[in-house]
Design a protein that fits this description.
heterodimer, A: Beta-Lactamase, 6-stranded antiparallel β-sheet, about 20% strand, B: alpha+beta, 2 domains
Chain lengths: ~700, ~180
């Protein structure tokens, strides 16, 4: 048995241990309670934090989702194989499927794109970030979208899939299609307009040609003052109509991009002189001088577009002449920079005309705009010239500059870069032989091929007047038949004819006839360059645009039938100063007729003195009307040739009316002519001496 | 030292030698606690040393053997009180691995003031494990009893060897080799 004391101690220890345990446990419980309180507090705080973060996250997510939905962006998440993991409402709507139908489906089956796999790879390598393609909707229809791809990575940064953001392009595509259709329509309309203009060009030009041609013929018949005035009005009207027509055609050609820059090697000085000549003719009626200065550095032919350059210069000169009542119009070409290969030339047209205000300057380059309404009333014109010039210069990589002071005059200039050649400029020839200078076409035979009866009459009348021997063919076939029998010196060929057209006839004539070498000149009512080029490509050497004035026709005859005398000492760039004719003489005409060819001028002056005085003596002592008529007929062109324009005019007008006026009138007129002649002949004599000195 | 060590020790003494021996060693020692222990309390380690040495004297058994036997005894208490520690391991090595990396961490959570020995385990290969015991209490014999019981619990056939890493026995290396 255990000792009672031991038991007592055991019980005592156990009681104390229990109490100790209770107090420890109570303390622990208190600690636990406290800890629990703290935990609860932590928990509450955590909950608040979590809640606010969740709300923020939710708001952010909601914001982006709303943005996506607002932007109507379709979202689809796919795994690496392309299997759909998640979609949004917009994407479901785009595809026409529900989300349940889409999940697990391969996205490849939803696109109309052959190399979608490749595109996905590109996305992966970031080589491409967006792609335009068609998605295939549930109903089988196609829908254009723009897809942007972005990779999806897991926590360990491993690529697990991709997200595709789809932007609906169907509206844009519709718009694009509509735009293309509208563009096609507009282009069709433009083509139709062009075709219309081309047709109208032909249709209007043919009758206009007849009006102008017949008016010119009418001009050389006997007309009284009133009739001449009316005729003058008809011609003016017709000329205006013609220039308006060609301006409108020019604009439509430029707008259609049909005007091509065709460079050619040519003598610039020749072009400039021709322009001057043209305007001398017009300026004669006013107190206006036309001056030309050419930089002596322009010694060689240049490579540029002569037709376009000519057109611009003609436009500028035409304006200058139109708006300048007296003073001068000065055309100049100045070399600004020069290398072995190229040359920059500044062309300038300066006038002393009415000038323009600042405000007017701003308007003049616009289509159909002139400086003001008064101008269009007083000066006429279409207001298209400068607009065309500006467009042409744009084609030539140049631009027009204008300076002007109201009441003092204007100057228009532009710079042109040209290629230089090593071909020297052509020696100066005697300028074109004007109507009054009768060239000899004796022994020459010409074939005219023209189907229009009015044009036939016009051309053949001129030929008769000029004593040109000709045959007339009414179509290409007939021309070809003529050409098999007879050798011609020159053939005129209309392009559009029934039975056989001009091109075909030309080819036949040049391949099998006795006229294979004969120069053939195209007659064309079309101003389109392509027509002219076609003519030139098919063996024709030159062309005349209908309507044409006698001067144009004459120029061609002279060019191909009359042997020009060559000039030795009048090369361009020559430092020799210009010969100055006596002020009483028609300087412009002489300049126009002989240019720098003073030897020819001298020759003609000498011929004049050898032949005319004899005639004039007979004229003074003779009262026979027929004899006087013949003398006047012979001398009046000769007066003109030596610059006695006034005398020539007087002689011609008497010649024209000698059969209609009284004997007394004739007598008084003869006296005036004789008196003037005696004065003038002295001038001619002194000019001969001056010319002899100058030439040697 | 945690009270559970005292209560279990005294339980073992009572079971083996009767309460008289318990009363004897308490009375023979000079104890601040007066021999009143509860498992949730904490008591000075010096009291345990006195109790053990008085028991050794009383029953004439060496202290290391007593501590070894107590280690084996306490294993059963642990097993019944904390079965979760044993169920989460499949074999002896992983259980020994978990003493430092898991069990002592959990104990520390429960008892902030617990002073626990370090058991640094290292698997040399499939068959061999090195276990280094470090404690200022120098009770590696007690630890050996626990290790033996653990290995038997997981039914291993094994050999346990022990090597003192320093003279006072506060650092000891156990090598367990599976057969």
């Amino acid at each position: 048995m255990i000792d009672i004391d031991i038991l007592k101690r055991k019980l005592d220890r156990e009681r104390k241990a229990r109490k100790q345990a209770e107090s420890i446990l109570e303390k622990k419980a208190l600690e636990l309670y406290q800890a629990n309180l703290e935990l609860k507090q932590f928990n509450d705080e955590l909950e608040i934090t979590v809640k606010s973060r969740s709300e923020a996250l939710f708001r952010s997510e909601k914001k982006y989702r709303e943005i996506m939905e607002n932007m109507r962006l379709g979202l689809v998440e796919i795994d690496l194989e392309g299997k759909i993991l998640k979609t949004n409402e917009v994407y479901n709507h785009m595809t026409g499927y529900s989300e349940e139908e889409l999940l697990g489906r391969n996205v490849k089956t939803l696109v109309n794109f052959t190399d979608f796999e490749g595109a996905l790879n590109d996305f992966k390598q970031l080589a491409q970030t967006s792609l335009e393609l068609e998605i295939i909707k549930k109903d089988g229809s196609h829908h254009w979208v723009l897809i942007s791809g972005a990779p999806i990575y897991d926590e360990s940064n491993k690529l697990v899939g991709r997200i595709g953001i789809h932007y609906d392009l169907s509206e844009q595509k519709k718009l694009e299609k509509a735009l293309i259709e509208a563009k096609d329509k507009a282009e069709d309309a433009q083509r139709a307009e062009q075709q219309f203009l081309a047709n109208m060009s032909h249709e209007i030009r043919t009758p206009l040609n007849a009006i102008i041609g017949m008016s010119h013929l009418l001009e050389s018949t006997k007309l009284d003052q009133e009739q001449q005035e009316y005729l003058h009005l008809i011609l003016n009207g017709a000329n205006l109509l013609q220039s308006l027509l060609s301006d409108i055609l020019d604009i439509s050609k430029i707008d259609a991009g049909k005007v091509n820059v065709v460079n050619d090697i040519f003598d610039l000085t020749e072009v400039l002189r021709r322009i001057k000549e043209t305007f001398l003719f017009k300026a004669r009626e006013k107190d206006l001088s036309i001056d030309l200065s050419i930089d002596p550095l322009i010694k060689y032919q240049i490579n540029a577009d002569p037709l376009l350059l000519n057109q611009v210069l003609m436009n500028l000169m035409s304006n200058a002449e139109k708006f300048t009542e007296s003073g001068s119009v000065h055309l100049s070409a100045k070399v600004l920079a020069k290398s072995d290969k190229a040359m920059t030339i500044e062309f300038m047209v300066q006038d002393t005309g009415i000038g323009m205000s600042e405000e007017q300057l701003n308007r003049i380059f616009k289509r159909f705009q002139q400086a003001n309404e008064v101008i269009s009333r007083d000066f006429g014109g279409t207001g298209l010239g400068l607009f065309i010039s500006k467009k042409i210069l744009h084609l030539l990589d140049s631009s027009i500059e204008v300076k002007s002071t109201l009441g003092e005059g204007s100057s228009f200039s532009f710079k042109l870069e040209t290629e230089l050649t090593n071909l020297p400029n052509k020696p100066l020839k005697g300028s074109y032989q004007s109507d009054q200078l009768l060239a000899s076409y004796e022994g020459k035979h010409i074939l005219v091929t023209e189907d229009n009866s009015m044009n036939q009459r016009y051309i053949t009348s001129l030929f008769k007047k000029w004593n040109v021997s000709y045959d007339l063919a009414v179509n290409g076939l007939e021309a070809y038949q003529f050409c098999q029998q007879k050798v011609y010196d020159l053939i005129f060929m209309d392009l559009q004819m029934p039975v056989m057209d001009g091109i075909e006839a030309t080819q036949k004539i040049q391949s099998e006839s006795v006229n294979t070498e004969t120069p053939i000149i195209a007659l064309t009512a079309s101003t389109f360059l392509s027509q002219k080029n076609k003519a030139l490509e098919n063996g024709m050497v030159d062309f005349i645009s209908k309507p044409f004035v006698p001067f144009h026709l004459k120029k061609v005859l002279d060019k191909y039938l009359v042997k020009q005398h060559t000039q030795h000492n009048a090369e361009l760039g020559s430092t020799k100063s210009e010969f100055v004719y006596h002020q009483e003489l028609d300087t412009d005409f002489l300049q126009e007729a002989y240019g720098n060819d003073y030897e020819s001028a001298l020759e003609l002056f000498e011929i004049f003195l050898e032949t005319v005085p004899e005639q004039m003596e007979r004229f003074s002592s003779n009262n026979n009307k027929d004899v006087n008529y013949n003398i006047l007929h012979k001398v009046h062109p000769t007066f003109k040739m030596v610059g006695l324009s006034d005398l020539s005019e007087k002689a011609k007008s008497l010649h024209d009316v000698i059969n209609d006026i009284s004997q007394e009138d004739i007598k008084s007129r003869i006296k005036i002519i004789q008196y003037k002649y005696k004065e003038d002949v002295q001038i001619i004599q002194s000019e001969i001496i001056k010319l002899q000195e100058y030439v040697t | 030292m945690k009270g559970i060590v005292f209560t279990e020790f005294l339980d073992m003494v009572e079971q083996e030698f009767g309460y008289e021996t318990v009363d004897h060693i308490i009375e023979a020692s000079k104890l601040e606690s007066e021999g009143v222990y509860t498992s949730v309390g904490t008591y000075p380690f010096s009291e345990m040393l006195q109790l053990v040495s008085n028991l050794s004297e009383k029953i004439q058994v060496e202290i290391p053997s007593l501590l070894y036997a107590f280690g084996k005894y306490l294993f059963n208490t642990f097993l019944s009180s904390y079965p979760a520690f044993f169920n989460r391991c499949e074999d002896g090595f992983s259980f020994l691995d978990s003493i430092d990396s898991y069990i002592h961490i959990e104990v520390k959570k429960l008892y902030h003031d617990a002073e626990l020995p370090a058991f640094e385990s290292k698997r040399i290969d499939d068959k061999n494990m090195e276990l280094i015991y470090r404690s200022s209490r120098k009770m590696s014999d007690f630890a050996e009893g626990l290790i033996d019981k653990s290995m038997s619990y997981y039914k291993h056939d094994y050999v346990l060897s022990k090597e003192l890493l320093n003279a006072d026995g506060s650092e000891v290396k156990f090598l367990i080799t599976l057969k």
